[in-house]
């Protein structure tokens, strides 16, 4: 079996962030199309408020993944990915709770859960990372 390199992990993280940015923009530009791709269909009566919230969430999360990656803040990125696993977990729950969901619509959410866990664990444990969780408290 071939060893996964740090370059592979970097590109997986970058592409995941870029995909989230794309999804976020799509929720603003084409809310109904994005909703269907997400895995649900709701009656909005032209009110796309929740679509825009979802779009903003994905746009910000993707931008933060990319920003932390480019700034080489690997531990912070790992913490964000691991704690951020809650987002695709809730998304998966929403899709599977929706009446008549299509099985194919759960795969992107499952993939996101796996990516967040694997990449998050990788960046938390990444050797040679100069950042740390040590906090210096000043003497008052």
Explain the overall architecture.
- The chain has helices at residues 6-29, 31-38, 49-70, 74-84, 86-97, 107-124.
- Helix content is 68%, strand content 0%.
- Helix 3 packs antiparallel against helix 4 (74-84).
- The model has no long low-confidence stretch (mean pLDDT 90).
- By secondary structure, it is mainly alpha-helical.
Tell me about the largest β-sheet. Answer: none
What does the overall shape look like?
globular
Low-pLDDT stretches: none
- Proportion of strand residues: under 5%
Helix percentage: 55-70%
Q: What's the helix count?
A: 6
Secondary structure topology:
Elements: H1 6-29, H2 31-38, H3 49-70, H4 74-84, H5 86-97, H6 107-124
Summary keywords:
mainly alpha
Q: Could you write a compact summary of the structure shown?
A:
The chain is mainly alpha-helical and 140 residues long. It is built from six helices and no strands.
């Amino acid at each position: 079996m071939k060893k996964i390199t740090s370059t592979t992990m970097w590109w997986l993280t970058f592409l995941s962030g870029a995909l989230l940015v794309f999804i976020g923009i799509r929720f603003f530009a084409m809310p109904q199309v994005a909703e269907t791709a997400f895995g649900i269909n709701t009656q909005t009566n032209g009110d796309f408020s929740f679509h825009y919230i979802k779009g903003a969430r994905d746009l910000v999360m993707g931008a933060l993944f990319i920003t932390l990656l480019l700034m080489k803040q690997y531990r912070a990125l790992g913490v964000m990915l691991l704690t951020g696993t809650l987002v695709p977990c809730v998304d998966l729950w929403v899709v599977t709770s929706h009446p008549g969901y299509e099985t194919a619509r759960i795969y992107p959410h499952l993939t996101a859960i796996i990516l967040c866990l694997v990449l998050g664990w990788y960046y938390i444990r990444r050797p040679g990372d100069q950042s740390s969780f040590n906090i210096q408290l000043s003497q008052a």
